[in-house]
Structure prediction request, 374 residues.
Amino acid sequence: MTTSRIQDAANAFDALMDAAVDAIIIIDSQGLVRRFNRAAEQMFGYREKDIRGKNVNLLMPEPDHSSHDRYLSQYGRTGDKNIIGKGREVRGRKQDGGTFPMFLSVGEIRQKEGNRYVGIIKDLSEVRESQQQVRQLEEQLLHADRLVILGELTAGIAHEINQPLTAIAAYADAGRKITDRQNETPPDEINTVCERISEQSRRAAEVVQRLRKLVQSGEVSKARHDINQIIRNTLLLFEYEVKRYNVELFSHPIKALQPLYIDEIHIQQILVNLVKNSLDAISLAGQQDGRIDIRIKKAGPDVLISVTDNGPGVPLKHRERLFESFFTTKPKGVGLGLSICKTIAGAHGGSLKYSQPKEGGSRFTLSLPLEFIG
Ligand SMILES: Nc1ncnc2c1ncn2[C@@H]1O[C@H](COP(=O)(O)OP(=O)(O)OP(=O)(O)O)[C@@H](O)[C@H]1O
Ligand SMILES: [Mg+2]
Prediction:
């Protein structure tokens, strides 16, 4: 090549380096920086003139900072391709000491004067940040969804709490009268009264306790729980709505089932959403003979928990979209219930499916593995 053609090629190469959106760094076989393009200057905060001739490990936090020279000489001796030809996610270090996630791919340029390596780098900070935001939003949505349903249930629950409290008062009055007439009263009558008092007050306390737990925001925390108990607790929350819509709500507990490794509140949230959907479907259809059944059975390595209602069912054209976020047919629906339920089921290594019983209505089946430590 003539001198001017060499110059043209060099200019074109410079222009290409500086036009690149990704950071491009070229080092020699000693690990010293030879080229550092404009995008790299912006990413790392160094000027090319300041970093040229310096060891590229300046741009790496530990442990790569200390190991990079060894990697290079190892490759020189053994030809063992650790990163060359592939890409991987690593951390970079800026001039101000801050570190950030980046995707680095390395290629090799073989030359008579010694090999060069070219690193192409994408900054992943934004990607990681938005992933983190999505995760946070999902957490918030789970929480918001619980709050929306709770808002609707609260009035009913307050009413439900009132009833046992009134009963406690009445029984307490009766107890007082009985002790007044102490001489004629056989002692086991007092016992019965006392039992009722404690029974009713325990029930009131439990409703409040459930409500409190469900409102609490929190990270997923799995532990061993009895699924029958979770179902019982769910039914407790619906006592008022069930009476209001004149619906029969049955549960069929399963005996001798081992405790499952689950997040109690999240699984209860699935059941609350499913029962609420069934109640909505029945009440929107104006049915007077509504019935909801919660059944549990073992199926191989899984336990299946189904919520079946005798409502109008889901029309064929809607079945594919049921679990989509924001799919709703209700005037005030958000359309997040089922999509959230499906996410929770997945986080437990399980699934949530719709099927239509042959006698009509809807059935949602939550499948959870009997043994899952996720
Ligand atoms: N048991 C059911 N019977 C009939 N249709 C149902 C049943 N469960 C869900 N659907 C249908 O699926 C749609 C989506 O349900 P999903 O729970 O995701 O949202 P939503 O109940 O409409 O709103 P929200 O976010 O408040 O729960 C409902 O609007 C309804 O059309
Ligand atoms: Mg719903």
